[in-house]
Amino acid sequence: MTPTTWLDIQTILTLMLLAQIHENYAWVTLTTNDTYSLGALVLAHSLKRASTAYQLVVLVTPGVSECMRHRLKEVYDIIQEVNVMNSQDAANLALLARPELGVTFTKLHCWRLVQFEKCVFLDSDALVLKNCDELFEREELSAAPDVSWPDCFNSGVFVYRPSLETFDKLTKFAVEYGSFDGGDQGLLNQYFADWAYVDIHKHLPFVYNVTAYASYCYLPAFKHFKDKIKILHFAGKMKPWLMHYNAQNKTPSVPSQYTHAADLIQLWWNIFFDNVHQRLNRSMAGLAGALSQLRLGEQRTDEQEAYDLLMRRQAWEAGQMDYTGLDSFDNIWKKIQETLQSKPEDGIGTS
């Protein structure tokens, strides 16, 4: 056997091994409705933009429409329906004022993807900025510290090994002990309780799960390490798709709490319009249908006005008011005066 032939065999074996690894590893996310599917679509395109070598899997619940599922199938290698698992822990969820987090227990279904050897779970409100394939070198349960309590990990990004045994243990644990915050993060931190102190190799650097909402205590660090961020996580109520978007100047109205990440929020919207927007249609539920009506650079239409009204209402409900713009006191007072002047006189207040 000549050296050249031996090298060829080595190359073939290496390629076969790499192909097997690619088949055994996957990025996994979850979406429960058409609106959150917008995040899942942008997430998938951000992973492809970062040239990942591994497969993409999305778990969907019955709340995702057939039309949206077709869009998800265009970018995800596997789409798998799962049932909604609710923590039923109203008391603890009330402490967070986030009752919707109960359905995040549905995330536990990711352990049932036993066709894969190892996976990385990403919340659908994450944005991958750089290639992170090295995460698959980590072991279960690897995750980054949560910014609000660093001895807990944030469950928006974690490395794990699918296992029906682990899934069964997790669900039984949830029934017996519940979750200290009523959601998946509390449950997973209770189950993987030794994460904080046993193996430092399971502590992912914070750059793999940077919270977009920056508080005063680490805002300087966000600015200093910004170029090193690999995954940005829009944790909390305010998501990119809930921010008002001006179709004429092609920029989102970024709340003051997110101005430090304005360019990254703009990137989210750029990916959305480059890869997702043209594939949406008005039959989709929630904001997906509304966003399909946006027309970049065109004069505002009735659909645009309706969308703007919806987005402003969503922002108000999420506690995000544009105090210096449309929601300034002067504009609100002007609107009140116009409304009062437009009403017919009914004699109230007259002598």
Automatic annotation (TrEMBL):
| SUPFAM superfamilies (UniProt xref) | Nucleotide-diphospho-sugar transferases
**Residues making up the signal peptide according to the UniProt record:** 1-26
What Enzyme Commission number(s) does the record list for this chain? Answer: 2.4.1.186
Q: Which GO terms describe its molecular function?
A: glycogenin glucosyltransferase activity
What's in the keyword line of the UniProt record?
Signal
Q: Which Gene3D superfamilies match?
A: Spore Coat Polysaccharide Biosynthesis Protein SpsA, Chain A (3.90.550.10)
Q: Has UniProt tagged this entry with the keyword Signal?
A: yes
Q: Which GO terms describe its biological process?
A: glycogen biosynthetic process
**Family to which the UniProt record says this protein belongs:** Belongs to the glycosyltransferase 8 family. Glycogenin subfamily.
Check the record and name the PANTHER family matching this protein.
GLYCOGENIN SUBFAMILY MEMBER
User: What is the protein's name according to its record?
Assistant: glycogenin glucosyltransferase
Biological classification of the source: Eukaryota, Metazoa, Ecdysozoa, Arthropoda, Hexapoda
